[in-house]
Amino acid sequence: MRNATADFRKVAVLGATGSIGTSALDVVARHPDRMRASVLGAGRDVDGLVALCAAHRPDHAVIADPALHDALAQGLRDARLATTPHAGMAAFDALASDADACDTVVAAIVGAAGLDSTLAALRAGKRVLLANKESLVLAGGLMMQAAREAGAVIVPIDSEHNAIHQCLPPGGDCGGVSRIILTASGGPFRGRSRESLADVTPAQAIAHPKWSMGPKISVDSATLMNKGLELIEAHHLFDMPADRLDVLVHPQSLVHSFVEFVDGSTLAQLGLPDMRTALAVGLGHPHRIASGVPGLDLLRHGRLDFEAPDHDAFPCLGLARAALVAGGTAPAVLNAANEIAVSAFLQGQLRFLAIPALVEHVLAALPAAPAATLDVLRDADARARAAATQALETGVIH
Ligand code: NAD
Ligand code: MG
């Protein structure tokens, strides 16, 4: 019989107040005999973080903005909690790598801001539940190398990659795999022509038909950049070349991806579109634990449809594939330009169709260069942000 106490898990949830973070905490709270949340971290939402601390009683709470340290400390005192307050990105990195603070890290910060803490957890040999796809796009090669060297276990949380992880043998051996096929919901604008997307609003773009997610990934899903980032993510996680990675639009979002093997077999993982399933796979790894998500009633859902992506209406997917093929700094540039573009779109400063235009502009301005070190990648990230911001400010792209 499994000895639950010997494997009792202390879980750090970085990005705790977000969509993935709260889903992770929902699963953690279902298993008080197996695990508890020991570290909770958030960007700027002090009240949200304190409320989560009151519910989950972690040892440590960390807020990214150093100016909010005192507000966090005061909030924890007012709530009569023994949780220790921390602030600043360095505190994220320190807690993610501290052996006493946690053994499992849910990397659920949005954007490249999640890179350092994820890398710190990998270098410390933690069990890392990796939702923060942007860190893999930015520095996937170095992250996978760090994980190998430190013996860290990565459980992909992105639903597609979690599905692939579930379809592969234990240890993730891709030996007999001929192709990986990522499924895509198609987002809120599936089936629409490019012309009809000229005036779509942020509110329309984040109204995802199947998944409830944070604003950045919701816009990425609407442009299909999300699937492009996921191609790069799959390349790193499963060591798969671009020409063996495909995308299939599947509007029901019940098949979360396919793995095709050399013998003609294709395996898929199915389930309701609820991230708690993937998080339970990671939190229980290598055991199966309850997630709160019911099983799939296929009779009720009736049918599974598949179609090819529309590259004319959604050029971001092709831009991401090209960046993957170009390699080096190109994925970092793509990711940084996209983060700036999505942020500007959400603030009403950029049209929807200008998101791919801005990314393409920055990729052309900063051609791919070899990227052997983290410093080179960080520099590419910074230069891409500067080039994107300048293009916005000068009105080259609008
Ligand atoms: P979200 O916007 O709902 O939450 C983001 C979290 O990150 C919040 O807790 C926020 O406080 C924190 N944060 C933001 N900036 C920060 C910073 N600079 N430092 C520290 N913390 C910061 O986003 P989400 O939808 O939960 O997505 C999180 C990550 O998971 C993203 O990389 C996303 O692509 C990935 N992901 C999400 C889903 C989903 O269903 N939501 C699915 C697959 C992958
Ligand atoms: Mg996904």
Which percent range fits the helix content? Answer: 40-55%
Structural class: alpha/beta
Characterize the largest beta sheet: strand count, sense, and whether it forms a barrel: 7 strands, parallel
Distance from first to last alpha carbon: 62 Å
Bound molecules: nicotinamide-adenine-dinucleotide, magnesium ion
Instruction: State which percent range the strand residues make up.
Output: 5-15%
The assembly state of the depicted protein chains is single chain
Total number of helices: 16
Mean pLDDT: 96
User: Numbering strands along the chain, what is their spatial order in the largest sheet?
Assistant: 4-3-2-1-5-6-7
Which parts are unreliable, with pLDDT below 50 for 5 consecutive residues or more? none
Please trace the helix and strand order, writing H or E for each element. EHEHEHEHEHEHEHEHHHEEEHHHHHH
Any idea what the radius of gyration is?
Answer: 20 Å
Describe this structure in words.
By secondary structure, this protein is an alpha/beta fold. Helices cover 44% and strands 15% of the residues. It has 16 helices and eleven strands. Helix 5 (115-123) links the parallel strand 5 (104-107) and strand 6 (127-130). Helix 1 packs across helix 11 (276-284), helix 10 (225-238) packs parallel to helix 13 and helix 15 packs across helix 16 (374-393). The N and C termini lie far apart (62 Å).
